[in-house]
C-alpha cells in the first residue's frame, strides 16, 4: 500500500489524512466523500516551480484544471503562483468567479464555441491554444469585433504514441487534437503569423497521460526543435514559447513506478536545451500543464461498504454507496486503484474481493480482485489517488447525487463542494403544462 502526502495510520488503527481521522470525516460529512490533502497539493506545485527555478530559465507551470476544477482549487493554484489551463467556458467561468488572474489563463479545446471565445477575449486571457483552422477564423473575427489583440499557441500532434491507454493518447497523428506536423502546422502558423489580431507565441504539444517513460517526450522535443528551426527559416521568426503539455504519471497501484516531479522536469529541460541548441536556436520559454501529477495522489474517496455477494470458486463482490457516478474511470478505460479499510488499517485477516458500485450497470466496478482486511457492511473503504478526473467526470446517473468534497490540512477539514441533494437533481426539470392538465383529468 502506497500512502502519499500526509496519509498515515494513527494510534486507533484508522487512516488519517491531513491530521484528520477519516472515520471522523465520515461521521461529519457522510459518504461517498472526496477528501483532498492540501499539504500534498501545495507540495507538488512547489516541486514543479522550484525545479524549474533551479535552472534559471523562463518557464510557466499551468495547472490543468480539467483534472479537478473548483473555486477553492483555483484559489490554491493562484496562491502558489501557477497559471491555469482551462478547456471550457465552465472552467473559465469558475476561474473568473474565483478571481484568478486572467492573464495567467490558457484556453484549450478542439471545438471552442463563439460564446466561449468571446468570454475569453473579453476576460483578456493570457493565451489561446489553437486547435484548428475554424478556430483561427473565429478568434480573428471576434478579436477584430472586440478590437482586442490576442495571444495564441498552435497545438500540433508530433506523431508520438505514448505508452499508455489508447483513450488517453493524444500525440499520435490520428488524433482529434491539433495540426499534424509539418505541412498542416506550418500553414496554420503562417496564417496566424500574418494575422492582424492574433499574436503567435509558439506551439503546444501533448503526447498523452499517465506516462512513466520520458522517451516519448524526448522524441517529441527533438521533432519540435526541428520544426521551430523550419518555422524560423520559412517565416523569419524565432518563436518565444513552447508548451510541452503534461501527462506525467502517478501512483495508482503498487506496481506503478512514476518518476519524481523533479526527474520529469529535469529530463524535459535537458532535452529542450540539447535539441534547441543543436538546431542553433535560442531556448524558448518552456510551459507545461500538469494536472493529475499535482492533484491525483492528493485525493482519496471514502465509501461505506454495504451488501456482498460470494460466488463460490469465482469471486466475492462487495458493494459500496458510490460507483461509476463518482468515478467512471474504471468503466471508461480500465483504470486501476489501490484501497484499504479506513477504520481497520492493520490487517488481521485478508480477503480477495472485487468492489462494485451501486449503479444499475454490470460494468459499474471500481476495483477488480483486491486484497482487503475482511470487509463487512458498515466498514469505510478508502480508495486512493482519486483526486484527478473523478469529480470532473462525475454524473447523476441513476439520479444519484454527487458527493461532497473536503479539503484537509493540519487537523482541520473544510467543505469545498457541498453534497448534492435530490432537490438539486430535479431543479432543472420542467413539466409542460399540458402534462399537468392531463394528470388532473386522469385523477379527476
TrEMBL record:
This chain belongs to which protein, by name? Diaminopimelate decarboxylase
* Cofactor(s) listed: pyridoxal 5'-phosphate
Organism (species): Vulcanibacillus modesticaldus
Pathway(s) of this molecule: Amino-acid biosynthesis; L-lysine biosynthesis via DAP pathway; L-lysine from DL-2,6-diaminopimelate: step 1/1
Q: What is its EC number?
A: 4.1.1.20
Which reactions does this protein catalyse?
meso-2,6-diaminopimelate + H(+) = L-lysine + CO2
Q: What InterPro entries is this protein classified in?
A: Ala_racemase/Decarboxylase_C, DAP_deCOOHase_LysA, De-COase2_N, Orn/DAP/Arg_de-COase, PLP-binding_barrel
Tell me the GO molecular function terms. Answer: diaminopimelate decarboxylase activity; pyridoxal phosphate binding
Q: What class of enzyme is it?
A: lyase
An example of a Gene Ontology BP annotation on this entry?
lysine biosynthetic process via diaminopimelate
Protein keywords: Amino-acid biosynthesis, Decarboxylase, Lyase, Lysine biosynthesis, Pyridoxal phosphate
Amino acid at each position: 500500500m502506497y500512502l502519499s502526502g500526509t496519509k498515515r495510520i494513527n494510534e486507533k488503527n484508522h487512516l488519517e489524512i491531513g491530521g484528520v481521522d477519516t472515520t471522523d470525516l465520515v461521521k461529519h460529512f457522510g459518504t461517498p466523500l472526496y477528501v483532498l490533502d492540501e499539504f500534498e497539493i501545495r507540495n507538488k506545485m512547489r516541486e514543479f516551480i522550484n525545479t524549474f527555478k533551479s535552472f534559471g530559465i523562463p518557464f510557466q507551470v499551468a495547472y490543468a484544471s480539467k483534472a479537478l476544477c473548483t473555486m477553492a482549487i483555483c484559489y490554491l493554484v493562484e496562491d502558489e503562483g501557477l497559471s491555469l489551463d482551462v478547456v471550457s467556458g465552465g472552467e473559465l467561468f469558475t476561474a473568473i468567479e474565483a478571481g484568478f488572474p486572467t492573464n495567467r489563463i490558457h484556453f484549450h479545446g478542439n471545438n471552442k464555441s463563439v460564446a466561449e471565445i468571446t468570454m475569453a477575449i473579453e476576460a483578456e486571457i493570457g493565451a489561446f491554444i489553437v486547435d484548428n483552422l475554424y478556430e483561427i477564423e473565429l478568434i480573428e473575427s471576434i478579436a477584430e469585433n472586440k478590437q482586442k489583440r490576442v495571444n495564441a499557441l498552435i497545438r500540433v500532434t508530433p506523431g508520438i504514441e505514448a505508452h499508455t491507454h489508447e483513450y488517453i493518447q493524444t500525440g499520435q497523428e490520428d488524433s482529434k487534437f491539433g495540426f499534424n506536423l509539418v505541412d498542416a502546422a506550418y500553414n496554420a502558423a503562417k496564417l496566424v503569423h500574418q494575422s492582424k489580431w492574433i499574436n503567435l507565441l509558439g506551439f503546444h504539444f501533448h503526447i498523452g497521460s499517465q506516462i512513466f517513460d520520458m522517451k516519448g517526450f524526448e522524441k517529441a522535443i527533438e521533432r519540435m526543435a526541428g520544426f521551430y528551426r523550419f518555422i524560423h527559416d520559412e517565416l523569419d521568426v524565432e518563436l518565444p514559447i513552447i508548451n510541452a503539455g503534461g501527462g506525467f504519471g502517478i501512483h495508482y497501484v503498487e506496481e506503478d513506478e512514476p518518476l519524481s516531479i523533479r526527474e520529469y522536469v529535469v529530463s524535459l529541460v535537458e532535452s529542450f536545451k540539447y535539441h534547441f541548441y543543436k538546431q542553433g536556436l535560442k531556448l524558448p520559454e518552456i510551459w507545461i500543464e500538469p494536472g493529475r501529477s499535482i492533484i491525483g495522489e492528493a485525493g482519496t474517496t471514502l465509501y461505506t461498504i454495504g451488501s456482498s455477494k460470494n460466488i463460490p470458486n469465482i469471486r466475492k463482490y462487495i458493494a459500496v454507496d458510490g460507483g461509476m457516478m463518482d468515478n467512471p474511470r474504471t468503466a471508461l478505460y480500465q483504470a486501476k486503484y489501490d484501497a484499504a479499510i479506513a477504520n481497520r488499517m492493520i490487517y488481521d485477516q485478508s480477503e480477495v474481493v472485487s468492489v462494485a458500485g451501486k449503479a444499475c450497470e454490470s460494468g459499474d466496478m471500481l476495483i477488480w480482485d483486491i486484497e482487503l482486511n475482511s470487509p463487512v457492511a458498515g466498514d469505510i473503504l478508502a480508495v486512493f489517488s482519486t483526486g484527478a478526473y473523478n469529480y470532473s467526470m462525475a454524473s447523476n446517473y441513476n439520479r444519484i447525487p454527487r458527493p461532497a468534497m473536503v479539503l484537509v490540512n493540519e487537523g482541520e477539514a473544510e467543505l469545498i463542494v457541498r453534497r448534492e441533494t435530490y432537490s438539486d437533481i430535479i431543479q432543472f426539470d420542467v413539466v409542460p403544462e399540458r402534462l399537468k392538465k392531463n394528470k388532473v383529468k386522469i385523477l379527476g
